[in-house]
């Protein structure tokens, strides 16, 4: 999938805004939102929040986790742990990118927040590269990847799955030639079924 | 107070437009990531198209400057994108694997477990006919007689079931068997609810189709 599609999926996440206008409840297909009361916080999907922000109809309430103290802790934890730690949520990177892009002025210490999220991302990506390397070297055809977010998983496509596919092909060939030395007649059979 | 309201509506298990949209989005995601064509979700698509039509009629009644109208339009465009991309992905697979799909689908139709909608099936069959006549007109009819035979099944391309995919478990599943190619010790794994894995598509193909796992 393209990164913009992951972003598209992430945009369904619910965030909090403070509208500067009043309006009755609005009935969307993905659910009902509102009523909008000027000055009172309310929840809407991320795509709607960004849209209203661009029309200057609301302020964004920074998500709980988009706070320097919380993020420092996450970063420390991520550095300390050998494994991937649990992120605030599945689409933290999408939320950060869109909110910091469209509403940096609504988020306290926005540029620091941006840097630290990028740091966390970098730590995780380097961990991911190391574990991919280990997985390939162990000749694995199976891996468990808890706490990795969709965007992170997507960033190793198609490299990791394809590398594993190739490894699988090599193993198939090894097996075919091994059985061929045992029994010459099986060579032609399994050899032709190999022909993909 | 608000939290209570939300909990109450969650308890009711009725089919809402919201849940249809969610199912459709998951189906789209699976279809994008699975190597083979998956059973169709035509009822969901039809239902959503009905919702869109209904919504569009309502939007037209609103004054153009109404804020609601542009919010609704934005949402509809998002849903239309999912539907279009879903159908396009399926057509792409149908074209690529047309011969294999039509052969397998014929058996599935007999068993009543068809994966394609009737119109998709017709499309696949016509695609093959057109491809065949195109190849005959451009090449086969102009080569010596003994080379003119057209063997459709030899041209079939099959999806690679051995490719690796990422998945997230919707529920705990025990005893997925991973084949060991070199040794003869097949490995058996259990996956817990909400855990994520990368593994071969083949052993989990059925789990994708019955919704026990979600491809990511």
UniProtKB/TrEMBL annotation, chain A:
Residues 65-169 form the GINS subunit domain. It is found in: Nucleus. One of its GO terms (biological process) is double-strand break repair via break-induced replication. Coiled coil: none annotated. The keyword Nucleus applies. PANTHER family: DNA REPLICATION COMPLEX GINS PROTEIN PSF2 (PTHR12772:SF0). This is DNA replication complex GINS protein PSF2. It comes from Euphydryas editha (Edith's checkerspot).
From TrEMBL, chain B:
It is found in: Nucleus. It comes from the Eukaryota. One of its GO terms (cellular component) is GINS complex. Residues 159-216 form the DNA replication complex GINS protein SLD5 C-terminal domain. The keyword Cell wall biogenesis/degradation does not apply. Its main location: nucleus. Gene3D superfamilies: 1.20.58.1030, 3.40.5.60. The keyword Lyase does not apply. Residues 51-137 form the GINS subunit domain. One of its GO terms (biological process) is DNA-templated DNA replication. Keywords: DNA replication, Nucleus. Belongs to the GINS4/SLD5 family. The GINS complex plays an essential role in the initiation of DNA replication. This is DNA replication complex GINS protein SLD5. It comes from Euphydryas editha (Edith's checkerspot).
């Amino acid at each position: 999938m393209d990164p913009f599609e992951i972003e598209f999926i992430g945009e369904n996440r619910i965030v909090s805004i403070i509208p500067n206008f009043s309006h009755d409840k609005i009935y969307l297909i993905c659910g009902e939102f509102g009523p909008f009361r000027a000055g009172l916080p309310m929840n809407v999907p991320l795509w709607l929040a960004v849209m209203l922000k661009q029309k200057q109809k609301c302020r964004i309430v920074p998500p709980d986790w988009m706070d320097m103290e919380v993020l420092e802790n996450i970063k420390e934890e991520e550095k300390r742990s050998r494994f991937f730690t649990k992120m605030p949520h599945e689409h933290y990177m999408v939320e950060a990118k869109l909110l910091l892009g469209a509403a940096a002025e609504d988020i306290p210490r926005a540029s620091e927040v941006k840097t630290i999220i990028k740091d966390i991302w970098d730590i995780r990506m380097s961990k991911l590269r190391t574990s991919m390397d280990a997985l390939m070297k162990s000749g694995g055809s199976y891996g468990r990847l808890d706490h990795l977010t969709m965007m992170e998983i997507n960033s190793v496509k198609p490299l990791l799955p394809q590398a594993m596919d190739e490894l699988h092909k090599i193993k198939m060939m090894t097996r075919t030639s091994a059985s061929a030395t045992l029994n010459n007649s099986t060579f032609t059979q399994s050899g032709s079924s190999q022909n993909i | 107070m608000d939290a209570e309201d939300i909990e109450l509506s969650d308890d009711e298990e009725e089919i809402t437009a919201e849940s249809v949209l969610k199912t459709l989005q998951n189906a789209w995601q699976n279809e994008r990531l699975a190597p083979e064509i998956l059973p169709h979700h035509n009822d969901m698509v039809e239902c959503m198209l009905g919702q869109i039509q209904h919504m569009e009629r309502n939007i037209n009644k609103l004054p153009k400057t109404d804020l609601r109208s542009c919010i609704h339009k934005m949402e509809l465009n998002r849903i239309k994108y999912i539907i279009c991309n879903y159908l396009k992905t399926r057509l792409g697979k149908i074209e690529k694997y047309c011969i294999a799909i039509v052969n397998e689908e014929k058996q599935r139709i007999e068993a009543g477990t068809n994966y394609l909608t009737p119109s998709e099936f017709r499309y696949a069959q016509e695609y093959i006919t057109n491809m065949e006549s195109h190849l005959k007109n451009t090449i086969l009819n102009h080569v010596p007689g003994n080379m003119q035979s057209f063997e459709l099944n030899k041209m079939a391309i099959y999806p690679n079931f051995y490719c690796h995919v990422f998945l997230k478990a919707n529920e705990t599943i025990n005893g997925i068997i991973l084949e060991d190619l070199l040794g003869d010790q097949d490995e058996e794994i259990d996956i817990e609810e909400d855990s994520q894995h990368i593994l071969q598509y083949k052993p989990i193909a059925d789990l994708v189709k019955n919704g026990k796992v979600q491809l990511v």
